[in-house]
Design goal:
It is a single chain. This protein has about 150 residues and is mainly beta. It is about 15% helix and about 40% strand. It contains 4 helices and 7 strands. It has helices at about 105-110, 120, 125-135, 145-150; strands spanning about 1-5, 10-30, 35-40, 55-60, 65-85, 90-95, 100. Strands 1, 2, 3, 4, 5, 6 and 7 form a 7-stranded antiparallel beta sheet that branches. The longest helix is centred in the C-terminal third of the chain and has 7 residues, at about 125-135. This is [histone H3]-trimethyl-L-lysine(9) demethylase. Belongs to the JHDM3 histone demethylase family. Its main location: nucleus. It catalyses: N(6),N(6),N(6)-trimethyl-L-lysyl(9)-[histone H3] + 2 2-oxoglutarate + 2 O2 = N(6)-methyl-L-lysyl(9)-[histone H3] + 2 formaldehyde + 2 succinate + 2 CO2.
């Protein structure tokens, strides 16, 4: 069990379901930027089994669908942790992005820590709500006079 960042940007408990080594490519782009986590498959004409020579010019298909020129600088092997959250969502993380349950959590993680609840899923079927709604399909809510509240 670990704490990890869900796609909703909050941190929840999750279960590590798989750990595997991932090869990332190191690239110096023609515009002066750098990447240390590009998948080999994103380099046009190459894969993890056929990598370019160090220093070779390459074209990289980026997340915007465009091709960008770069120089291949080598590879970086990273251990990736694939986790599954209680709602079934699966995500992958590098080790420094997850925390075991007994590790000290950084302040930014503690401030966004949440606990998954089933309440929002069972709300529509809860007998208490069904009884309150009754046959008229609306909840009885007391009327509030905001003008009286404001004095």
């Amino acid at each position: 069990k670990v704490y990890a960042k869900h796609k909703n940007t909050r941190y929840y408990k999750a279960t590590v379901v798989k750990i595997e080594r991932q090869i990332f490519c190191l690239l110096d782009f023609d515009d002066g930027s750098f990447s240390d986590d590009t998948f080999p498959e994103d380099i046009v004409g190459y894969s993890s089994s056929t990598l370019p020579l160090v220093g070779a010019p390459v074209e990289v298909k980026w997340t915007d669908g465009e091709l960008y020129g770069a120089k291949f600088k080598g590879t970086n092997i990273v251990v990736m942790h694939f986790v599954q959250f209680e709602d079934g969502v699966e995500r992958d993380f590098k080790r420094h992005e997850i925390w075991t349950l007994d590790e000290e959590l950084p302040k930014h993680v503690r401030s966004r820590l949440s606990v998954a609840t089933e309440r929002k899923y069972s709300l529509l079927y809860d007998e208490e709500i069904k009884a309150e709604v009754g046959d008229h399909h609306t909840r009885n809510k007391p009327k509030v006079s905001y003008s009286k509240l404001n004095g």
